Every structure is written in structure tokens, then in C-alpha cells.
Amino acid sequence: MSKKISLTRYLVEQQRLDGHIPPELRLLLEVVARACKSISRAVNKGALGDVMGTAGSENVQGEIQKKLDIIANEVLIEANEWGGHLAAMASEEMDSIYVVPNRYPQGEYLLMFDPLDGSSNIDVNVSIGTIFSVLKKSEGEAGVSESDFLQAGSQQVAAGYCVYGPQTTLVLTVGDGVAMFTLDHEQGSFVLTEENVKIPEDTQEFAINMSNMRHWDTPVKRYIDECLQGKEGPRGKDFNMRWVASMVADVHRILTRGGVFLYPWDKREPEKAGKLRLMYEANPMSWLIEQAGGASTNGKQRILDIEPTKLHERVSVVLGSKNEVERVTAYHSGL
Ligand code: P6P
To answer: How far is the CA of 16 from the centre of ligand 1 (A)?
Structure first.
């Protein structure tokens, strides 16, 4: 890419030239990007800062919180609460919503995030990331409550993630395709490095936690078994497998070179629809994937059409290269 286009310039042009984003949403996205830069700095300290290891507490999911989970959550709350663009925030790390305090003006947007996805990888120096999703509050209603957040993923007005890996890269959609911005550490700003990202419709690479195989439902077992049979099997081609155990890293690979990611329902906890969270993991990632020409279902239904009933609702996820997702979904309907 010849000239360097900053995230700010990209957002101004999205606002001015394509009318995609109003000024308050542009401000919100710039604030989230600045918060991700701060989180990146904290992550990069590693053992040199007091950021590694567990915080000695559990989150609403019953998962042990890492120090960086809490740091990242606080960075996002403090960066976004005063700007006047938000009514409230919701986070994987907080039981209930965080309403913007009365000392600050309230806006019309709702921000949800997983402040540090994949945090089991922090202590072993493997890529992790921040996932975020933006909705709009219903017009004209005073106040804000959890029910304002319970909107289908198709209602998102912006979604993205920041992956803290060999590069710190912000990936964003406002409904006009997917753009990627790499953090220029010398300038301290995100620079446009990819736009109009497109996922190949076919792939030879799947991502799933194979240790759960005995717990999967039949359609998933059939799909993975056929991939493992390779050339000699019904697929007629060999497959490769990747599993980072960090959704941000796996989705970034799929956006970059294709692939299919599965975190399916399994029979260990049959009452749970899946492990991943709908509002701030599956929905933002699904919109990015669809905006890049891919597909995303829960095995039966388009993720973005799911009407949530709870803030921390869980869901099964099959996302990535369109033809593979359609195949897995077809197997679920007995085809
Ligand atoms: P497992 C991370 O905890 C996460 O929510 C996703 O980022 C990741 O894809 C998945 O869980 C990993 O789960 O069971 O393989 O550790």
C-alpha cells in the first residue's frame, strides 16, 4: 500500500464520503482503538510488568480471571465512559451492564466487549485479543437497561477486534467490508494495511479442539472425520488443522487465508448451547466473517439472526469459508 492512511483518516472518509458512520460512532471507534493501544502496551510488558498470572478472582462465566483480563476491562471502561457517545457498556468480565455515570453525558451507543479473549494464552506468550461490538439504543427511550443490549447481531453498527500478536492489528467493519490496521509503534498510530478483505469460499484448513471429539454431536463428528480421511475420503483432498485456543487468533488467520472454525455444542453440559458468548464473541466475529464473504451459523441458524435472551448467552459457532460452513450446516439438517 503506497500512502499510509491512518485509522482516523479512514474513519473520517467513511463518515464523509460514504455516510457510513455518524461523528459520535467515529469518536467511539477512535476511543476503542486508543484503548486497544493501551492494552497492547500492557500485554507487551509480559513478565517485566506486574501483569502476568491470575487475579485470584472469577468472572461471571466462572472462569479464573487473569490480571490482564481485569486491566484490559478497566482500560476500556475508563477510556469510554466520559466521551458522551455511550449509554452503557457490557463485558465478559462484568456480571451486569455498566451504565455511564451521571457525571458524564449519555450517548446513544451500546458497547460490548471481551476485553482479553484467549487469556489462557497470556502466560505462554501466544496471541490474544480484544473483541468489541457496537449497538444503538432504541430511539427516544429514557435510561438504559440490560434489555437494550438484547438485539440480534444483525443490528450491530460496528464490530471488530484487536489481535495482540507479532503485530498489533485492529480489524474493523462498519458494514462496508472489512479493513485491517496495523499499529505503527514508532508513530503510535494504526495504519491501514488491508481493506475489502475477502475469505476464499473453499479451504483445506479446519480449527477445532479435537480433544472434545467424543462429546460432539453426529454432524460435527461426520464433518471432521471426512476432513481427516483426506484424499482417500469423500472430500477428495487433504486437510490441515490449527487450534490456537484464542478465537481472535483463529479468526484472524481465517480472514487472512481462509479456513473454518468450529466450537460446537457438546454433551458434557447439554443445557449449554455452546462455550462461546453470543453478544461479544460470536456476533462481532460473525459480522466480520460475513462482511468478508464468509458465513457463520450455530450449525442450524445464521448467528446474526439469533435473538438473544440473556446478556452472557452462549452459542455454538461454525464460521469461515462459505462452502465449508454450508456443508457443516447441511449435515446438521440431515443432508
Ligand atoms: P478451549 C478462549 O477462552 C475462548 O473463549 C476462545 O477464544 C477460544 O476459541 C476458546 O475459548 C478455546 O476453548 O476449550 O479450546 O480452551
So the answer is: 39
Do 35 and 143 reside in the same domain of the chain?
yes
Nearest to 119 by CA among 160, 57, 69: 69
Residue 84 domain-assigned (yes or no): yes
177 lies in the same domain as 210 = no
Q: Dmax over Cα atoms in the chain, in whole Å?
A: 66
Mutational pocket test of ligand 1: of 254, 275, 276, 279, the residue with most ligand atoms within 8 Å of the beta carbon: 275
Q: What is the pTM of this model?
A: 0.96
Q: Is the CB of 268 under 6 A from ligand 1?
A: no
Q: 8: which residues sit within 8 A by CB, 6+ positions away?
A: 30, 189
Nearest-CA neighbor of 327 among 243, 222, 254, 231? Answer: 222
Q: Which ligand 1 atom lies nearest to the CA of residue 114? A: 5
> Which residue bears the cell 482516523?
8
Pocket perturbation via mutation, ligand 1, pick of 92, 114, 117 by most ligand atoms within 8 A of CB: 117
Give 332 Cα–ligand 1 centroid separation in angstroms. Answer: 23
Q: How far is the C-alpha of 84 from the C-alpha of 241, rounded, in Å?
A: 45
| 199 occurs within a structural domain | no
Rounded Cα distance between 31 and 26, Å, is 9
Model pLDDT for residues 221-259, shown as the tens digit of each residue: 999 999 999 999 999 999 999 999 999 999 999 999 999
